[in-house]
Amino acid sequence: MFGEWTPAFLSLEREQLELDRAPRGGFDPLDLAQAGWAIVFAAGTTKEVRQALEPLVAWRRMQATKAGVRRFAEFEYRPGDSSVSFVAEYRTDPDAFDPADGAHYLLLVGSPEQIPFEVQYNLDISYAVGRLDFERVEDYAKYAQAVVARESSAVAHESERQGKWGVFAPSYDEVTKRIHDDLVVPLLRRFDRRPVRGWQRLETLGESASVSRISEALKTADFLLMGCHGWGLDPADPQQRKFMGALLDYDGQAFSAADIDPEVDLGGLVPFLFASSSGDSPQFDESEERVDKKLPAPNAVTARLAQRLLLQGAGAVLAGVGRAWTEPYSDQRKRIQIDAFEDSIRRILRGYPVGFAAEVFNHRYVSLVASLAVLLELEQRSDRRVDRDFADLSCELQDARSFVVLGDPAVRLPVVVEADATKPRAGSGS
Fold first, then answer.
1. Which residues contact 420 (CB under 8 A, 6 or more apart)?
2. Distance in angstroms (rounded) separating the CA atoms of residues 401 and 122
3. Per-residue pLDDT, 355
4. What is the C-alpha to C-alpha distance for residues 320 and 318, in angstroms, rounded to an integer?
5. Chain segment 319-349, per-residue pLDDT in tens
6. Residue 254: beta bridge partners?
7. pLDDT in tens, 344-374
8. Where does 240-292 have alpha helices with state H?
9. What residues contact 154, with CB distance under 8 A and at least 6 apart?
10. How far apart are CA 232 and CA 322, in angstroms?
């Protein structure tokens, strides 16, 4: 198997692995009575927070047990538990999900200090995981009540509708130019060739990508892909907690939590924030040895912008933890990472749960780990060093791993689901 190493061989190996990126079959991801839903409270979660979330918990319990089979659970995460020890304690199989073993959708409740990012990442490989982390009890209550109100109304009125989805991508330096030219524009061309029925697209690109346009888009769109810089601040800066991860527009102006109209109801919007620290800021940057410095965050925290979006009516937020890398879609294999973005967006627009859509990146992460193992073994069995390929794979792997869902992973847009949305296509996924 490991003959003479060639870039073509490695590329073929990766493409073959890509064929298996679709989530496992055997259950309907739309039906919680089959897929199951569980809530995971950090140890020490107060009674007040638990009570605040009860409307959402009761709603999911009803959905997950309506077929007479128990697909609902409440768990507790204890400090120091790994994803493996957590799963083992509740007697589910960490290697292959079977609906009979428990719930596929897991909602973590707690800060990244209480339930670490690493646990969320690793659980996300086999499950569809989201997180709620607010600073006030009433914020948990507000989110829970809003989700239940939207979904109970949608059950009675769901129909084919003209939705709006948009993209926001300034282009003014090397990084934003790569996001604009190598990710967003090629994605738009793909959706031009194969549009999702029932959706109107809004574009805010280049010089038009301003803070004011972000505000407009939030009020009109059902789904938004926003690719830009995330604002990084020094730990000593008194504004660090408030603005870390804010989105930067074409002129370098920041769009932060404070810029969201407190009176606006985002109505279940799902934003996909592709920007550094747009979701959370880990205490240590996993890319530290490559860039020789720590990400400027004194503690692991949830970004204020993402929190505020959820409190203003966003159903869930897809965002990045730590540094976002643009290399994965800016080299000769740019198609591979673009596929993951395209497939996840198509699932969201087709009405599948956000956690299910995010699994495209989770399965991509697994395939990249396998590719990395192949690469290292190739190096061991040959005299040729593969440092550049190793570096490229490492960046791709970190990007795929660090996308997280903030909010309930079972949330979805109220649209009619297309029947073929879960079918994998060669080299791509759904």
1. none
2. 9
3. 95
4. 7
5. 888 776 665 555 555 556 788 899 999 999 9
6. 248
7. 999 999 999 999 998 888 776 666 666 666 6
8. 240-243, 288-291
9. 414
10. 10
Task: Please work out, in degrees rounded to the nearest 5, the angle formed at the alpha carbon of residue 408 by the alpha carbons of 146 and 295.
Answer: 115
| Pair of tokens at residue 347 | 């699932």
Neighbours of 225 (CB within 10 A): 24
How far apart are alpha carbons 15 and 266 in whole angstroms?
A: 39
Which residues are CB-neighbours of 253 under 8 A, at least 6 positions away? Answer: 210, 211
- In a 13 Å sphere around the CA of 240, the CA atoms on its Cβ side amount to 14
β-strands 403-407, 316-320 pairing: antiparallel
Distance separating alpha carbons of residues 130 and 79, to the nearest angstrom: 18
Instruction: Using DSSP bridges, classify how beta strands 280-281 and 247-248 pair: parallel, antiparallel or unpaired.
Output: unpaired
Adjacent-strand bridge partners of 406 = 131, 317
Would you say residue 15 has pLDDT above 50?
Answer: no
Specify the residue for token string 């996001």: 179
Q: Extract the tokens encoding 26.
A: 């055997």
pLDDT for the residue numbered 411: 97
Tokens at 392, concatenated: 């490229």
Helix (H, G, I), strand (E, B) or coil at 364: helix
Beta-sheet strands, E only, within 280-402:
280-281, 301-302, 316-320
With residue 108 as reference, give the H or E element that holds it. strand 105-109
**354 CA to centre of own chain:** 8
- Please name every residue paired with 271 in a beta bridge, in sequence order, or none if there are none: 224
Q: Cα–Cα distance between 304 and 55 in angstroms, integer?
A: 24
For the chain, the residue count is: 430
Q: What angle (nearest 5°) sits at the alpha carbon of residue 346, between those of residues 60 and 175?
A: 110
Spatial distance between the Cα atoms of 383 and 378, rounded to a whole number of angstroms: 9
| Burial (CB count <10 Å: 0-12, 13-18, 19+), residue 137 | middle
Choose among 84, 97, 118, 75: nearest CA to 23.
97
CA-to-CA separations, 25 to 35, 368, 422, in angstroms, rounded: 11, 21, 9
Helix (H, G, I), strand (E, B) or coil at 39: strand
